[in-house]
Write a structure and sequence with these properties.
The chain has 115 residues and is of the alpha+beta class. The chain contains four helices and four strands. The protein has a two-stranded parallel sheet. Strands 3-4 form a two-stranded antiparallel ribbon.
Length: 115
């Protein structure tokens, strides 16, 4: 809907682009379902797909729980689509796939690490 209504994309092109992104994330079944009826993991994947359908250069998000596959999917998008993914966490360690970890405390960078 946002591609068609807000961005002015051709309806068929918007539908095709949306379906391609849903297929990329392995959730083609959400094409015909309302968001409120999806499992939580499918809702998260759909939200990621919704963010990527506009072909952003940077994706910023709150790092999901350790059991989530969103970090892996976002890393895949970064590699295949050439975008920068920034995850933020309030506490805990960063994903093992991070190319760089920056810790901030009280608005100041306190540690930078590259694996």
């Amino acid at each position: 809907m946002p591609l068609f209504r807000i961005c002015g994309a051709d309806a068929e092109a918007a539908r095709e682009r949306t379906h391609d992104v849903l297929d990329f994330y392995g959730i083609p079944e959400v094409k015909t379902q309302l968001a409120g009826r999806l499992a939580t993991s499918a809702q998260h994947r759909a939200a990621l797909a919704r963010a990527l359908v506009h072909h952003p250069q940077i994706l910023v998000g709150i790092c999901p729980s350790a059991g989530s596959d969103l970090c892996r999917l976002a890393s895949r998008a970064a590699e295949e689509l050439g975008l920068c993914v920034l995850w933020t966490r309030q506490n805990g360690s960063a994903s093992g796939k991070a190319q760089q970890t920056i810790r901030v405390r009280d608005g100041q960078v306190v540690c930078e690490q590259k694996p």
